[in-house]
Amino acid sequence: MSTNKVGLWIDHRKAIVVSITENGEEIKEIIKEIISDVEKQPRRSGDSPLKGAYEAAQVPADDSLQRAFTGSLNVYYDKVIDSIGIAESILIFGPSTAKDEFKERLKENNLDSRIVGVETVDKMTDHQIAAKTKQYFAKS
Length: 140
Fold this sequence. Notes:
By secondary structure, the protein is α/β, with parallel strands linked by helices. It has one domain: Nucleotidyltransferase, domain 5. The chain contains three helices and five strands. It is globular.
């Protein structure tokens, strides 16, 4: 019987998915990288009242920028969900709020029962992410 366990390192710029498949004695590790098309948190743009002409209509509302940013993140998170596939167990870790936002996105898609842990970690190499994933699932 084959089991599929996933370790996911995620921030707003990219996600690294490490899939570990166990089939008897054989352990297969697959590493995928998903790059986000999301820009950094949007800022208001337009003329500054200190620099010259300033009209409120020239500057987009903060909530419209935030909605656009959130929409872009949701597209990115959906790509990550597609790459996880039918994982039985998902360990989510990363340095920023993206891991918690992704957890909420899984909950919206009724996939949160597969989450086995959420951890805060700093930047990691692909090999460190794979090692952490293997170590975590070796304990369970």
